[in-house]
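The records we work with from here on pair a chain with its fold. These numbers are not coordinates but entries in a learned vocabulary of local backbone shapes. To see the layout at work, look at the sequence and tokens printed below.
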Amino acid sequence: MRLPRLSLFRLERAAPAALAPVPVTLTPRVRVQRLAAEGRTAHRGGVADLVAPASVRCSADHLLLDGQFARVLALVGLPPEVADGWLAPIISEHLGADVSLIVQPQDAGATAHSLRVQHLRLQAVMGADEDDAVPADPDITAADEQVEHLRHALARRKENLFSVGLYVLLRARSRAELDALTRRAQDAFARVNGRLVIAHFQQEQGLHSCLPEGRDQIAKRHQLETTSLVTLYPFPPATLRMPGGVPLGYDRATHTPVEIDLFDDRTFRNANLLLCAPSGGGKSFTIKLLGLRSLLLDDATDLLIIDRKHEYAHLCEAVGGQFIRLAATSAHRINPFDLPPLGPQQTPAEVLPEHIQQLIGLLEILLAEPDGHLSSLERATLDRALRQVYATHGITTDPETHQRPAPTLPALQQVLDDSSALDENQTARNLAERLRPYTSGSLAGGLLNGATTITLDSRMVVFGLADLPRALWPLAMHLLASYVWTEVRRRPDRQRLLVVDEAWLLLQHAEGGEFLEHMARLARYAGLGLVTITQDVKEFLRSARGQAIADNAAATLLLGQSDATITAVAEAFRLSPGERDDLLAIGAESDGQHGVDQAAEPDNRRGEGLLLAAGRRIKLKVVATPDEHELATTAFREVTGRRAMPGRA
């Protein structure tokens, strides 16, 4: 439906002697009410007169509409290179502006003829320069290449040509405010190498061009092919600012805050987050900020961290958390014989038998040969011994007995020794000898030899693996998986983030990969979010378990990448060429900024990346306060309290 053209009247300043009493400016509704009260009807102009401003005064560079200042600006210079949606940051400046985009298809025949003429003229200029031994003008050469490319694209119907005009109508309450808005609008276009100018002496025509008439009365047009035209898609991207979310930083494209709530099931299918970046890219720094702010802003969220290098010890101490050092001789112990609480869809009589089967899986890690398995006879022997151990301590399938003190690993050692002595059971004897290092040998000082000495009562619990031999990592993973699930069942009202740093190393062990995949698939049913951090993206995604973890992550954060990782990342997460180049540029600039204080130098690119969440692709900039930076940094000199010497890089 075409709206009627508004009749605009230029009101000239009258001489003082001819001034009538001061008129009252009426809005359309008030005018209709006045006419109705006087028993009259509106002018024959109808809707046009009712919606038109009561007065319009035109100046060379602005308009005055019913006492409101307005100005029309026209786009006269297009950026040489743009990315898709390049207008979005401009529209997101909150200028209160009306943006009018007028697109008119061009006649194919006339366009082809015009391009042919341009090509011939450019060829003539280049030929004349060549005859005169004048060096080729790169601008003319580039223009001829573009014209020739467009001619071929039009001939193959890969492109169409359009005449495009873009105009911006600004409104303000004063002339000073209007001038300030104009500068903001021009600066916004200048940031993307565009040029926006005031439509001098064409303000009235510009106003018509910005009204829903579909007519361009300024005629500041640009010839664009289809590929360039689609980059003008004018709608800004949706921001990711969730109520009650944890602030991460801001969107580099729109400069709006980014706040995320991983446990919001209306937005995310689970609370899993995957973070990928090379070494030194800011992975641990970002997760420390996320964890710290989660603890401070939300009393219902706890933080569990599997820390391979003890990077989180300082933060844990600062927030009053619990650091659990897992080592062969550590004082921190987890008793694998502790019975879990009743699980969902589980009957009380099933708790003990199912836990015995889990214990047999743990003992297989301890007692089987590397990459081997226990025989059926060995598993049967352990099953009988475990049932006897629990019976000796008065624990049966009756749930009333489950509150009694649980047995420990030395109790199993005693049962196996007795069985081998009384029955001359060779299988029991072999199992007893293989178990002995963990009960009375060099590995008997900690980890699982004794009653449990740790709890998850603290809001932040860190499991440090730095002092644990790599050979015992599978054992630790099995213990942690059982213990975390047990504690989650004990307190189902809490939501928890389980952070696994350097996950690609755990995937090298079958038990570690199984643990992570199991958590990724089932964590959401227990109010648990798995935060997986990896620097070797290629190896991580090459693993079937790693790919399953990536597929089950509702949110993914990609920080700056290197040449070695960008190909795998681009294929896995379907990056556009612009996103790929952006991550490469961030990675290249971050390499020279190790140890840079982000709070002191906010322009450095460490902590920048691409956040894929809730159907959005956000160019994130992670921002920390000076106090947060001190807690989260992993830079060597900052951690050790030393700074670079003056004059040294």
About this structure: The CA atoms of residues 35 and 41 lie 6 Å apart. Confidence is low (pLDDT under 50) at residues 1-36, 594-600, 642-649.
